[in-house]
Amino acid sequence: MSTAIVAGLLAGYGVAVPVGPVATYLVALSARTSLRVGLGAAAGVATVDCGYALLAGFGGTAVAAVLDPIARPLRWCAAAVLLVVAARFVLAAVRSRPSGPAQRVDSRMGVGRAYATFAGLTAINPTTVVYFAALIAGLRTSDSLSTGASVAFAVAVLIASFSWQALLAGGGAAVGHLLTGRIGMIATAAVSAAVSVFLAVRLLLGG
């Protein structure tokens, strides 16, 4: 059981720590709204990560067998999506204008909507999908985890993912005045675009 917990924590931080488009949006959302809304978004991300972890724990061998024949097309599609995401970040930053406290983007988003939005974004985020697809495939080399160990693994992923996303939300809330200005918008978009392009290139090269 302890091995499953440690493995879950490592897997959770492994998928959460690399900063990508969803993480950048989380920081920006917290900066434009409140820490409470940011934590709601963080919970949405962590919930989906936990769901993928359960899938990996309970159905690793079966799901990997289904994914194997379409692994290359999925990799190409994921790379294409990442490149589109990068382009949209840059275009949005170029066209955007700084806004006042009463007119900030996403200022009316509540906790529930933030949770649902980020759960959806994480579910279709190519980086997350590829990461857990690889994790699922990796479980083929050993027997599936027991029911208790699978649950412990998923809960550990949930804790790791949420703790990191909460840290990002807190950082966004703390430096919101810097991120919502013109320079902050462009800088954030540039970083997000660069990360997206880097991930796309890695996928195309088979990394």
Summary, kept brief:
With about 210 residues, the chain is mainly α.
Shape: globular
Our Rg estimate from Cα atoms comes to 18 Å
The share of residues in extended strands comes to under 5%
**Derived structural class:** mainly alpha
Helix-strand blueprint:
Blueprint: H1 2-16, H2 21-32, H3 35-67, H4 71-95, H5 111-124, H6 126-138, H7 147-174, H8 176-179, H9 182-204
Helix pairs in contact: 1-7, 2-3, 2-7, 3-5, 3-6, 3-7, 4-9
Salient structural properties:
81% helix, mainly alpha, globular, single chain, 9 helices
Can you tell me about this structure?
- With 207 residues, the protein is mainly α.
- The protein has one domain (2-204).
- It has helices at residues 2-16, 21-32, 35-67, 71-95, 111-124, 126-138, 147-174, 176-179, 182-204.
- Helix 1 (2-16) runs parallel beside helix 7 (147-174).
- It starts with a helix and ends with a helix.
